[in-house]
Amino acid sequence: MYKKLFIPGPSHVRDEILLAQAAPMIGHRAKEYSDLQAEVTPKLQKLLYTNQRVYLFASSSTGVMEGSIRQASLKKMLVTVCGAFSKRWHEIVVDNGIACDKLEVTSGQAITVELVDQALSLGDYDAITLTMNETATGITNPIQEIAAMIHARYPDVLILVDAVSCMAGIKIEFDAWGLDVCFAGTQKCFALPPGLTVCAVSERARQRGKAIPHHGHYFAYDIMDKHYEKFQTPATPAISLIQALNKQMDDILASGLENRWARHAEMAEYVRGWARKYFKIYGDERFASNTVTNVENTRGISVSDLNKELGKRGAMISNGYGDLKDKCFRIAHMGDLTLGDLQWLTAQINDILGLNEQG
Ligand SMILES: Cc1ncc(COP(=O)(O)O)c(C=O)c1O
Predict the structure, then answer these.
(1) What is the H or E stretch that residue 181 is in?
(2) Rounded to the nearest 10 degrees, what angle do helices 257-278 and 339-353 cross at?
(3) Residue 131 C-alpha to ligand 1 middle, in angstroms?
(4) By CB distance 3.0 to 4.6 Å, which of 67, 180, 182, 347 could disulfide with 161?
(5) Contact partners, residue 157, CB within 8 Å, separation at least 6
């Protein structure tokens, strides 16, 4: 039986989108492909409220995390860490031998404007990494406010944002916020299969990239730019996924961006209400994510047993990530899921765990 995915990626993919991948293959140097990329790019620019370049990488996001930091800094980077995925970005920076300092908060806490301001004031930084939605903890960091502070006080600092688990689920105004790099794989809020990453890059980030010797090749913006205006990519693109993305973007724009943000907020509010009633929300609730709720396992249930039972009913949720395994479980409310899906899911969990209306 198909299990509807309530995990924070890959997320549930609608049949229409799965089928859109089965369109006939086209050559990536043919006009048909250029037409496809020319069609999908402005739709992605609308999604991100940007006039800047949006690249399509045939890679999962980890590749773009690496590519972006290799093109960001001539001095030193500040790497913010608030959970397992932001920690991964720090590891990538270290593994590339790039000078950096780490600003780390306790699991479940957010990276705040004050913390970033204080950290940036202590060193000669020219780039920062921020994880907008820390999938491991269910915390959304206040990127807009942090970016505004950086522009006012540290104008040379490039702002790199991992929006992997929130792009297309939470509003990101790339130009108005003044972001420099912002990326996400398609398997989360875009509700497509994995293998493709969308990445917006500002003009100044592209210039910075060029100024950095040995900035890599596959993810290099200047290499991408050699083909960008022909609406092509230097290496073979993930054509089937881009065909499906083009269809998905039509559907997303037709149903309205504001409606999409509102639906995610509504689903999150509902799941948080349920979690508060029967369990507890992990971490600082003021920053609770609209795409994934991390539920503290205050009842000491067996998360794997719960998932086995849910599996028999056609659903799957996620255990806590890393150190939070069994201490938490995560319910994603992203992509094309609806409030009705979440109401159905929580009713199944209540039934399996014998939670009554009074909790
Ligand atoms: C916030 C965040 N960043 C990065 C990644 C890495 O993405 P991928 O495994 O697709 O490379 C993930 C994956 O879940 C994530 O949630």
Answers:
(1) strand 181-185
(2) 10
(3) 10
(4) 182
(5) 78, 120, 125, 126, 127, 128, 150
pLDDT exceeds cutoff 80 at 293:
yes
Phi, psi of 105 (to 5 degrees): -115, 160
Query: Of all protein residues, whose CA lies closest to atom 7 belonging to ligand 1?
Result: 61
Q: Count CB neighbours of 122 within 10 A.
A: 10
- Does residue 359 carry a pLDDT above 80? no
Give the residue, out of 61, 137, 198, with the most ligand 1 atoms within 8 A of its beta carbon, to mutate for a pocket test.
Answer: 61
Q: In sequence order, what DSSP letters do the residues of 49-80 get, joined into one string? A: T--SEEEEESS-HHHHHHHHHHTT-SS-EEEE
What average pLDDT does the structure give for the chain?
97
Closest to 230 (Cα-Cα) out of 55, 52, 43, 35: 35
1/355: higher pLDDT: 355
User: Phi, psi at residue 275, to the nearest 5°?
Assistant: -65, -40
Query: DSSP assignment of 232-273, as one string?
Result: --SS---HHHHHHHHHHHHHHHHH-HHHHHHHHHHHHHHHHH
d(CA 132, CA 183): 10
Distance 129 CA to ligand 1 centre (A): 14
C-alpha distance from residue 304 to each of 170, 190, 294, 308, 319 (Å) = 29, 27, 15, 6, 7
CB 187 within 8 A of CB 10: yes
Mutate to test the pocket of ligand 1, among 82, 135, 172 (most ligand atoms within 8 A of CB): 135
Nearest to 13 by CA among 355, 241, 228: 241
- Is residue 135 within 8 Å of 62, Cβ to Cβ? no
CA 319 and chain centroid, separation: 19
The predicted structure's pLDDT at residue 358:
55
**Which residue, 193, 226, 211, 149, is CA-closest to 58?**
193
User: Model's pTM, two decimal places?
Assistant: 0.98
Structure token pair of residue 277 = 């009633």
Residue showing tokens 């995390």: 65
User: Average pLDDT in the 46-72 region?
Assistant: 98
Q: Kindly report the CA angle at 279 between 288 and 318, in degrees rounded to 5?
A: 65
